[in-house]
Amino acid sequence: MAISLDLMKEITEAAGLPGYEGEIRSLMGKYLGSGAAVETDRLGNVIACKEGTSARPRIMLAAHMDEIGFMVKSITEEGFLKFQTLGGWWEQVMLAQRVVVKGRFGDIPGVIGSKPPHVLTEDERKKVVKKEDMYIDIGVANKAEAEAKGVTPGDPVIPVCPFTPLANEQYLMAKAWDDRFGCLVLIEVIQALKDIPHPNTVYAVGTVQEEVGLRGATTSAFGIDPDIGLALDVTIAADTPGLKGGQLQARLGGGPAVLLYDASMIPHLGLRNFVLDVAREEGLPVQLDALERGGTDAGRIHLARRGVPSLVICAPTRYIHSHASVLHRNDLENAVKLLLAIIRRLDEKALARLL
Ligand SMILES: [Zn+2]
């Protein structure tokens, strides 16, 4: 199986901030819709339902469509944009980065600016610049010109990083691998299931507003009432300088990682064992990881209604929550294979055994 680079480019470059998922939502609707019945719930989640030979178990696969970004809060008299961060940003990775303002008349390029180091005091230079002191420069003379170009407070602002295969073309750099990785897995799984019989019904959900508190997973899991929840997301790769030998373990190219712990959920052990057994039987690489901070959509899915056994399957990814993140193509493709193997085996008997 080879996932098309064109599809990766299209999905990673699409805009989609928490609450402003329109662009990525229409792509997800299009690609999921070619293999399953698709609907959108009232919060904006895209829900694809692929019926197999049995109505149960209902397997919910969730990947969040939103990426972290910014929102225009106000325009200064000089025409600079003050902004609100959407999702978790660390100031060190924001300065001098390119962005696009989704203005009323179209895209407006800009850059995140601040005072240059030359004019800072010795003390100021040692400190991280606070995001409150940053602004977006779109290159206009004043507020009236910014407004005339179509900028309105409330407009979403998207990080810019063109999709780029790196020196070893298995290493792929893009914005928003968190969580367009999961979105691509959903698309590939639903496409593949057109030709694969499966003893269950699969719901592939592109969720909204994960980065601001797992909100889309809350409403979609309620609506679906799943028997099993699997969230696809990214975890922190631990194979870069300064991280090796620490508490993190996953490396790029070592296979998708099963999360043993994160701040939003303790995974279901029976489901963990089932997934690890499937990987072993299929000869698929899999890694184990745990995240002390942060959560995923599974954090809400497992609490839906009377509770849903849930697990998170991740791609180890470098530089998440910055403009340019890097993941390994094999991990993406092996995640799809692992999901398909799970779905082929997960019938009512297998569900009863793992509970
Ligand atoms: Zn994520």
Structure overview:
Helix content is 28%, strand content 26%. A hairpin with a 5-residue loop joins strand 1 and strand 2 (46-51). The mean pLDDT is 95. The protein has helices at residues 5-13, 22-33, 122-126, 143-148, 177-192, 215-224, 269-282, 298-301, 329-345, 348-354, and strands spanning 37-40, 46-51, 58-64, 69-75, 81-86, 98-103, 106-113, 135-137, 156-159, 164-165, 171-174, 201-207, 228-236, 257-261, 287-290, 310-317, 325-328. The protein is built from ten helices and 17 strands. The strands form three sheets. An eight-stranded mixed beta sheet has the order 1-2-12-3-13-16-14-15, with helices on both faces. Strands 5-4-9-6-7-8 form a six-stranded antiparallel beta sheet, with no helix packed on it. Strands 10-11-17 form a three-stranded antiparallel beta sheet. The protein binds zinc ion. Zinc ion (ZN) binds next to helix 5 and strand 13.
Number of helical regions: 10
SSE sequence, one letter per element: HHEEEEEEEHEHEEEHEHEEHEHEEHH
Approximately what portion of the residues adopt beta-strand conformation? 25-35%
CATH superfamily of the largest domain: Zn peptidases
**How far apart lie the N and C ends?**
32 Å
